[in-house]
Amino acid sequence: MLLFFLGPTKSLKNAFIIVKPEDSHLIQVIENLKPFDEIQNCTQEFLYPYMWQATGNNLDVINLPVQNEEYTEINEHFLNNAPPKAQVLSIQRIQNKTLYRDYVKKKCEYNLIQKKYEKKLWFSCDSTDVTELRTNGLNTKFMKVGRCGEGYQFYKESNTAFEIQLQSDQRQDGNHYIYCCNVAVGNPIQGNTSYKKGNIPAKCTSVVDNITCPTMYTIFNENVFYPSYLLTFKIR
């Protein structure tokens, strides 16, 4: 646990941090943090997420313990709008350095570093595509044509993502797979059927089905998303 104290000036510039002994591994993370103005300038130097385990590998799939706070957060996010009678079997953190670097670089290119431009969205896939997605990310085989155009479709609610996938997945192996993704949606615009890669407004990273209350986000660039967690679940 990290304890932050702002001091009498109530300014982050004069804040200090107390690190408990069991969290001493976070000291290096804190020392390497850059001022916010440097982050906004989009330097290509950055840190991987603080919860990532250092293994030296480019790709690691980390099984989260059920009692882990990270597990609880993602599990609750899933169950908020999950398919009826869904039971989570496992949650795995995806640590893919190449995909994450590409994601951060693309956010820099589009000036989308601030958190307000990023959402956690759901992407459901067949079991045969699970490994490909976490290893190489998106490619044209994952594109779908819809009312918002031809692109990669992400959903605000896990149940909607699951139902859409069921329409094309005829396999009955008992388990279902869904990614909780970080998506740099930017400032979405209303989608239409004419939109596709190469035919969208400049600097636009996403379009939506409903500009007032979006439920589906469509992106057209493979690198404005990162597959943060894989959830395996079944329907009881």
TrEMBL record:
The record, for InterPro entries, names: Mono-ARTD/PARP, Poly(ADP-ribose)pol_cat_dom
Any one GO CC term of the record? cytoplasm
Please state every residue range assigned to the domain named PARP catalytic: 46-236
Tell me the PROSITE patterns matching this sequence: PARP_CATALYTIC
The UniProt entry's GO biological process terms, in alphabetical order, are: negative regulation of gene expression
Q: Is tRNA-binding a UniProt keyword of this protein? A: no
Q: Which GO terms describe its molecular function?
A: NAD+ poly-ADP-ribosyltransferase activity; transcription corepressor activity
What is the protein name given in its UniProt record? Answer: PARP catalytic domain-containing protein
Q: What is its main location?
A: nucleus
Q: Which keywords does this Swiss-Prot/TrEMBL entry list? A: Glycosyltransferase, NAD, Nucleus, Transferase
Q: Does the keyword NAD apply?
A: yes
List the subcellular locations: Nucleus
